[in-house]
Amino acid sequence: MTNVWTLAALWLGLALVATLLSIWLRVATALSEIVVGTVAQLLIGALIGGSVLGTDESWIKFLSGTGAIVLTFLAGAELDPTVFRTQWKEACSIGLIGFVAPFFGCAAAAHYLLGWGSSASWLTGVALSTTSVAVVYAVMLEFGLNKTHYGKTVLAACFINDLGTVLALGFIFSPFTVKTLVFFGVSIAAFAVLPWLTPRFFRRYGGRPSELEAKYLLLILFALGALASWADSEAVLPAYMIGMVLAGSVGKDHALIRRLRTLTFGLLTPFYFIRAGSFVSVPALIAAPAAFFVLLLAKMATKFAGVYPVTKIYNSPRREAMYTTLLMSTGLTFGSISALFGLSHGVIDQAQYSYLVAAVIGSAVVPTLIANAFFMPHHLVAEAVPAAKVPPAEDIAVASLPEP
């Protein structure tokens, strides 16, 4: 057990360093964890050996996978059903074009400009079609826009965008067999029953120190995750849908969500993001930096070509339209999840994975900086809740968390 505790201490030490960097640099924790994982693998691998981090240890894979599943569930649970019902046309239009345009555009760029194979190109389209709820949610919280009609609509569009990504990842890269039909059938039944069963079960047995609610949710996530894996799919796919169908009940239980966040961001997601970063090949990036720039520019250009015209259809002023487009151009969690899925299943090689993750990281930073520097809708910030000008400590803490 000495090796296990030593590795655990090393990984949590890296997680602590990443958290401090995110605080000092004011970036999403997920972003800093990916970078720390990349640097740690490079330095430790050069000084001691590449196997020191133990990225292939079964317990590290389990914690990493659990982090991805619960994080994906929390992302779905953040959907605001009330706003979605009133603004579903605008949210769906922006979200769908925000997925479709970069999905096909980035796949074409990877195939025709970089010469990648068809499977790798489609995986690239999936990975770069995402919008980072992590970045968008943090920006909304920081400026109080999450309390405005505008902010809630943009967040709803983010969820539609990422739902397209999740479905594309499952449909394109999962083999269609009898197992697939069983998986879909059981999942649909679960999605139909859970919104009715969960609140009633919680009302009768919840609210106790034994944390029954967390155990119940983890059981559902693990069970459907196991079924997805059995069907040769990805365990995060049903997790996102479970979060969405339970957004009206579990998503409104702020105490439960906070406890799940503590478990997820305190222990689980550092293993996922640091492990994802450790697979990035810095020598490959240095050898061919053009691939990184092609992918990043392709994502931003296709997002702009798709999202901006749709925002104008719904009569958004120029500043708001540009701000929405740039926020929809961000990517982080689902992009890295899709890239790691491709690497783990042999769809892309390590060099292609490195280019993809670097482009994902770049898309989390560059559009956000441009949006906040040049296109901030100050009139909406002024109309937000006055307390947003000086965010309470709780909101500041939440804003630093890597919501997907």
TrEMBL record:
Keyword RNA-binding among record annotations: no
Any coiled-coil regions, as ranges: none
Keyword rRNA-binding appears in the UniProt entry: no
GO MF terms held by the record: antiporter activity
Topology in the lipid bilayer: Multi-pass membrane protein
Gene3D superfamilies in UniProt: 1.20.1530.20
Chief localisation class: membrane
GO CC annotations on file: membrane
GO terms under biological process: proton transmembrane transport; sodium ion transport
Domain Cation/H+ exchanger transmembrane: 19-370
Record-linked InterPro entries: Cation/H_exchanger_TM, Na+/solute_symporter_sf
Localization of this protein: Membrane
Transmembrane segments: 6-27, 34-53, 59-79, 91-114, 120-141, 153-174, 180-202, 214-231, 278-301, 321-343, 355-375
Protein name: Cation:proton antiporter
Species the sequence originates in: Duganella vulcania
